[in-house]
Amino acid sequence: MDDMTYEKAIKRLEEIVVQLENNEIPLEDSIQLFQEGISLSQYCDKKLKTIQSQVAQIYENGQLKDFPSEE
Q: Which whole-number Å values give the CA distances from 23 to 13, 54, 61, 68, in the listed order?
């Protein structure tokens, strides 16, 4: 999942929500989808926190600042 983009993770999370809301899949599959959704949600939260941290580092005290890239 680490190579997945934030946008792809959100799209997959939305797909999971639709599937779970339709109530047309077996309970066992619902549980697996729910677990995948939780993992995706945590992944997206981590990505957002990383970006927020980078933005804070870039703009500190009204000054643009360099920051190390994670790539």
A: 16, 40, 50, 46
CB of 58 closer than 8 Å to CB of 64? yes
pTM of this prediction exceeds 0.85: no
Q: What is the DSSP letter of 20?
A: H
Distances (CA, A) of 7 to 2, 18, 32, 43, 56: 13, 17, 21, 11, 21
For residues 40 and 9, the answer to whether their CB atoms sit within 8 Å is: yes
Q: How distant, in Å, are the alpha carbons of 19, 21, 34, 47 from that of 53?
A: 33, 34, 29, 10
Helix (H, G, I), strand (E, B) or coil at 63: strand
What's the pLDDT tens digit per position in 21-64? 998 899 999 999 999 999 999 999 999 999 888 877 777 766 66
